[in-house]
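cron nightly-structures :: item 1 of 1
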Amino acid sequence: MKKKISLILLVLTMALGLAGCGADEKSADYDTQSMETCADTVLQSFQTMSDADFDMLRSYSDFQLNYTLMSSGLPIANDDFLIMMDSYQNAVKEYGELIDYGEFEVSESKDGPILTTKAEFENKDADIVLNFDDEEHMTDMSVNIKYTIGQILEKAGMNTLIGMGTVFLVLIFIAFIISLFRFIPAIEAKFKGNAKEAKVEAPAKPAPAPAAPVAEAPAKSEMDQSQLIAVITAAIAASEGTSTDGFIVRSIKRRKNNNWK
C-alpha cells in the first residue's frame, strides 16, 4: 500500500515538473529578435512619415493596406495598425516630434509579450509600449508619459486650486443671488401699483331713452263716440216707442253711482 502511494506521488511530481517545463519552453519560444525588428520598423516608419503620409495610408482600401504591411514584413492587422497610427500622432501633437528611443525591454502578460522602450520627445520623455499576441503579431502601441515627483505635485496642486476656486466662485454667485431677495417685495409692490393705475373702469352704459307715448288716433276716438251715441239713441227710441228723428243726443256722461234698480 505504501509503495502504491509513493508511486502516485512520484507521478504527480513528474507531471508538475513537465507542466513547468512546458511553460518555460513556451516563454522561450518567442522570437524576441523578430519582435524587436518589427517594433523598430514601425517606430522608424512613424518617425519619418508626415501627416500627408498618414492620411494616404488611411485612404487605402483593406487590400492595399494589407498588401503594404505584408510587403514591409509587419505582422499587424489593418485595424490595429490604424489605431497605432492614431496613438502615435496624438502623442506627437501633445509632446512634440519623436527624437530618439532606446533599447527594447521584453516582458510578458497573459495576452502575450510586451516590448517597452524609453523615448525622447521634443517636450516630454515617455515610455513607448508595444503589445504582441501569442503568435507574435503586434496588436497595440501606447505612449506613457513619465512625470517627475515635482511635476506630479505641481499638477495635483493645480487641480486642487482649480477645484477649490470653482467651488468658491459658485458659492459667491449663490450668495449674490440670495442678497437680491430683499428687493423682491419692493418690485412686487411696484408691479401691483402699476397694474392698478393701468386698470381703467369701463364707462356706464347710457340708459335707454323712454319710448315716446303713442298718441291715440283722434279719428278712432271720434268713431267710437259716434257709435256709442247711435246705440244709446236707438235704445231710447225703442223704449219710448218713438223715432230717432224726434230727439238728438248731444253728449254722454258717465255717472259716478251706477246703481241700477
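cron nightly-structures :: done
The chain has eight helices and five strands.
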